[in-house]
Write a structure and sequence with these properties.
This protein is an all-alpha fold. The protein has a domain of about 70 residues. Helix 1 packs antiparallel against helix 2. The protein starts with 5 loop residues before the first helix and ends in a 32-residue tail after the last helix. The relative contact order is 0.07.
Length: about 100
């Protein structure tokens, strides 16, 4: 059993090779096939991790005392703060641009 589920995705990325075209570039259908394969592996890892976490949550709910269950927070967690640019990385924001018609 892998300690890090994302290692299977990393291995897939490392061994992925694209079929070359005769004259420059790569075969587009091969790229799409490899991207589909990668997406399926991500989905598999995601679903496996989701099932593990749901099992942990269910176990904790079942084993929690009634007093602890009443004291458990029911509000959603605080939203994450906006990302901060790392040193040397420029961040930008997308701004809405109005049409020439003023809309």
């Amino acid at each position: 059993m892998e300690s890090d589920p994302m290692q299977s995705v990393a291995r897939l990325l490392k061994k992925t090779k694209f079929r070359k075209k005769l004259i420059g570039g790569v075969d587009e259908s091969d790229v799409w096939a490899k991207l589909d394969q990668l997406q399926k592996e991500f989905q598999r890892v995601y679903e496996k991790r989701e099932a593990e976490l749901l099992a942990v949550i269910e176990y904790q709910r079942e084993t929690m005392s009634p007093a602890a269950a009443r004291a458990a927070p029911t509000a959603p967690p605080e939203p994450m703060p906006p990302p901060v640019a790392a040193k040397g990385v420029q961040m930008f924001q997308v701004q809405q641009v109005e049409d020439d018609d003023g809309e």
